[in-house]
UniProtKB/TrEMBL annotation:
The lineage of its organism: Eukaryota, Viridiplantae, Streptophyta, Embryophyta, Tracheophyta. PROSITE patterns: ZF_DAG_PE_2. Gene3D superfamilies: 3.30.60.20. Residues 13-67 form the Phorbol-ester/DAG-type domain. GO terms for molecular function: metal ion binding. Keywords: Metal-binding, Repeat, Zinc. This is Phorbol-ester/DAG-type domain-containing protein. SUPFAM superfamilies: Cysteine-rich domain. It holds the Pfam family C1_2. The keyword Transcription regulation does not apply. It comes from Gossypium lobatum.
Length: 201
């Protein structure tokens, strides 16, 4: 087996090879969208995030200091579960805390703490009171927020932006400048409704 190949329990038919793509793909492990580095079987069109291909048996996250998350190949129990980071359904690989009942997609558990659109840095927060500047809604999900507080984006909305505007990342930035996983499209160009601060009454 080559150094960039692995065997994986979810796809025993063939080995998976480390690959890199600038276009979005769907992870066959956690069922969420991915972009950038991943493991792939070209024979079967089978893809895994690197975090899903080589998961840790257990992890801790700075947002949940009292939790210990264990890796599961499918959601535990018989009731529907959702990811506490993005609030989307959990239908595949997941990190689950038995004591608290919290769940995290592997890709959400490994989200970068800082994103960059080329002009503005966005920092990951567990809770942000302001509404998201893409969907306009508030929510319990994690959010990325600029230090100037002019931009707030749910992590799920950031993922949608990557899928909708991957061509800008590919052609706009150029290859090799920054890791694709830490880049997002230009906020000024992709947010349809620019944020305006409310004046105090």
């Amino acid at each position: 087996m080559k150094y960039n190949e692995i065997s994986h329990f979810s796809h025993p038919q063939h080995t998976l090879t480390l690959d890199y793509t600038e276009t979005p793909f769907k992870c066959d492990g956690c069922k969420e969208v991915g972009i950038g580095s991943h493991y792939r079987c070209s024979f079967c069109d089978f893809d895994l995030h690197t975090h899903c291909a080589i998961p840790s048996l257990s992890i801790h996250h700075p947002f949940y200091t009292k939790c210990s998350f264990q890796f599961f190949s499918r959601p535990p129990g018989n009731t529907p579960r959702y990811c506490n980071a993005c609030e989307k359904d959990v239908t595949g690989f997941v990190y689950h805390c038995k004591s608290c009942g919290f769940d995290l997609h592997p890709c959400c558990a490994k989200l970068p703490m800082v994103l960059d659109d080329g002009e503005t840095n966005l920092y990951l927060y567990r809770k942000v009171r302001a509404p998201c500047h893409k969907c306009g809604r508030k929510g319990r999900s994690w959010s990325y927020r600029s230090s100037c507080k002019e931009y707030n984006l749910h992590v799920a909305c950031v993922r949608e932006m990557l899928v909708e505007n991957w061509h800008e990342l590919y052609f706009g930035y150029g290859k090799g400048i920054k890791k694709l996983e830490n880049r997002i499209p230009s906020l000024k160009n992709t947010l349809q409704t620019p944020h305006k601060r409310r004046k105090g009454k």
